[in-house]
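Ticket #4471: structure output looks truncated?

Reporter: J.K.
Steps to reproduce: submitted the chain below (132 residues) through the standard prediction queue, then opened the result file.
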Amino acid sequence: MKKMDLKIILENFDHRGAVYRGDYCKKEHFLLAEIKQGKIRGGHYHNKKVHHHVLSGKIMYKEILLTEKGNCKKKSKETKRIMKSGDIIKTPEYAAHLLIAIEDSIIFETSDENKMTTNYQKYRNEIDKKLA
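Returned output as attached by the reporter:
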């Protein structure tokens, strides 16, 4: 039997919790992120759609649609939703997103293929304030 080329790597660990990346055949296929109550993750957008599966806990999910150059789309307004265990968030390409833990939470993020991640400064500023 051929060995499966799956690697699970600790990508980040800080006071917000751990983030693990799952690579298959040297391509990222999923992230598993812990977000402790009151902490924030995200603050970026991707060039591909992603799905965030709330495995446990409760989060506030914030999103704003952007152009490919990272500017707000005309008439785009920020949306906010409370998501709980069992919910799936379908994040479109070029949608800046922020995940704020209302309770200790575990998020499983999947994407169709390798994606590029670009910081969205407005949301990164919110994270940086919490990190300070």
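Triage note (M.O.): checked the attachment and the full token line is present. The chain has a mean pLDDT of 91.
Status: closed, working as intended.
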